[in-house]
Amino acid sequence: MDNKLVVKVNEHDNVAIAIRDLTAGEEVAPGVFTREPIPQAHKVTLVDIPKGGKVIRYGVVLGTVFEDSPAGTWINEDSLKLPIPPPLDHMQWGTNVDWNPPTPPITTWEGYKSPDGFYAGTRNYLGIQTTVQCVTGVLNVAIEKIRREILPKYPNVDGVVPINHAYGCGVAINATDAYIPQRILRNIARHPNFGGEFMLVSLGCEKFTPQMFCEDRPEDNNPDNVIVLQECHGFEDQVNQICAMAKRKLAHLNQRHRETLPLSDLLLGVQCGGSDAFSGVASNPAIGYCVDLLVAGGGTAMFSEVTEVRDGVYLIAHRCKDEVTKKKLANEMHWYDNYLARGGADRSANPSPGNKKGGLSNIVEKAMGSIAKSGSSPVVEVLSPGERPTKHGLIYAATPASDMVCGPCQLASGIGAQLFTTGRGTPYGLAEIPILKICSRSEVKQMWPDLIDINAGPISSGKRSIQDVGTELFKLLIDVVSGRKQSLAEAHGLANDLCIFNPAPIT
Questions:
Q1: Which pTM was predicted?
Q2: Does the structure show a pLDDT above 80 at 3?
């Protein structure tokens, strides 16, 4: 729009979003005046929409209005009836795989080769795994001692990271879905940033035993790698044994060094949280262009969040390279539909109150904006929660949408860094990898200048292009994964608790 009071995404849209707070009586389109005050990022009708009529944004139907909505009306979460979700069983695939890739400005980076030939590491950490929450207190004390007294002797190691979680005891260990949290924890232990070194702290009576933890690699279950606290002689001995094992592992990790690698050795994750209506206009498309640059250069990127793509799943299916990928996509969506149904919930439990305050009326609108993070390249693989990829290119990883759960799932898949887009702000972080924050509104950058790495807000006002911001983000990403810079979250040491997705019962 010429007056820059609102943003219209698609020529077929009959609503637009407010660039700033609007007062009643402002002209947002020729002959269209706001009928009431409309908050920033919220929708205003551009035409008369009768009761039961369709509200269209991103060129798709967000829902139908409960009441007559003349031009200039505020549309929010209370205005719309949610449509039924799109069907899954007969989605077309491969109809949108033609792609004109951009040229990445950088084609190499500096990383740590993985001993198992997987994607390379972006940091050099000692990761200390745990079988159960009960050992966390002892391990945290030991970690403090390691960082204070031992780590300085190994200058090539970036840090020590405890993998604390709430799994392992009081769980239905053989339940139908118990394989999901177990797979996640096993694969986190194999993360490239841990350099192939395995160290596990166990209590001794938990259900998730060291033997089960090492089920995929039984050779790791030995006294050189596993400490059982119930076999130690008191607290001091527990701490000392942890420190002694860590010292041996650190000596090995200290031999690692960065080397120049192709982009094909980099695995990136993208996620959003604290989203608003500008996320799908500014920050998410900028991340999408960054993803396109990485994939065009031979790298791999993964996007996720099942409920936040469910209503646009057919768009992903159109981009699937083959029928096998499309079928896996449909199966993962079916599984999650059933999972929600078992809990007496549906996809309307998302968006969050903050999302709604930021103008996202329902999950359909949120999904359209969320998918923009994936860019435009074909989808080459679909993963179940916590699976490791086997292909290079754009990957869809079927994780829950919760920030705190999606992150560890992607971590288990092996991402070396994550781009995190936010419309309202969040101090989210992971200790195991660098997280870069991209905001959708300039107001967020102004409020949190030391937490937001890239401001995509100027895209909405037309002051910067999606390509410009996406390229800036790509260059910063390469600097961060190469160890030349830290993300702001990393520099502040921001890290959330590791929340492992566990759909199985707790006993």
A1: 0.95
A2: no
